[in-house]
Amino acid sequence: MAAKYITISKAASLVGEKVFILKQWEEEYSDFITIKRDEKNARLFTAENIEFFQKVKAFKESNMDTQTIKQLLQNQKTTVPSSAQEASDVTELHETLLKITSFIESQEVQSMLKLDERLDKLEKNVVSSVSEKITETAKLQTEVARFEFSDVQDMITSLAVTAEAERASYKEEIQVERELAQKKTDEREERFLTFVREHQHRSERMKQEQKSGLGFLKQILSFAR
């Protein structure tokens, strides 16, 4: 092997990445780089190849997506800048990164990043409050039902000792009382279910607002990049 070529393992060490990453980038950016192979089909890397992968790594570390990197490589391929222009571009890129970092570290952005934590805490408080309310409501309904059942049971016991002739006249009244008691129970159950559904709707709305806030943050960060 000529001295101007190095193996992929040595190239990976110089770039500071794993071997499989270089293979992945070779395939991903095949329009911009060609790796020479020896008679055993082993990759032979040149200094230009190393420089290319180091450039790709710098772009990746700047959180650029693949399409943006390809566009930058295409622009560099069609227009080869002078050394002075390259230095200017590097300085401009550095200043841009500093601005992005300053923007991300600003109090406004940090406050937005904490939105998720605040919403989670608020949701837990709401759930806890609703759970306590449901527990209190359930206890109250149980007590009311117990008293109503006790009243009906007392009425039935009283009627058990009543003469047979009098029982017939009370049957219709008993049925009405039972229907009223059932109707009241059904109404309480419906109010209880309505309360639970409203809580669920509020929880879903809060989650949607949370997602909208995070989506807005991502748009801001994407615009800043």
Which labels suit this protein?
mainly alpha, 8 helices, elongated, two-stranded antiparallel ribbon, 225 residues
Describe the structure.
The protein is mainly α. The chain has 8 helices and 2 strands; from the N terminus they run H-H-E-E-H-H-H-H-H-H. It has helices at 8-15, 19-28, 47-61, 66-78, 83-104, 107-113, 115-160, 164-224, and strands spanning 36-37, 43-44. It is elongated, with a radius of gyration of 37 Å. It starts with 7 loop residues before the first helix and ends with a helix.
- The 3D shape can be described as elongated
Report mean pLDDT, rounded to a whole number: 79
- Count the beta strands: 2
Order of helices and strands: HHEEHHHHHH
Helix content: over 70%
Count of runs of 4 or more consecutive helical residues: 8
Main sheet characteristics: 2 strands, antiparallel
Give me the side-by-side strand order of the main sheet: 1-2
Coarse structural class = mainly alpha
The gist of it:
Helices cover 81% and strands 2% of the residues.
How is this fold's topology laid out?
Blueprint (H helix, E strand, L loop, with lengths): L7 H8 L3 H10 L7 E2 L5 E2 L2 H15 L4 H13 L4 H22 L2 H7 L1 H46 L3 H61 L1
Antiparallel strand pairs: 1-2
Helix pairs in contact: 7-8
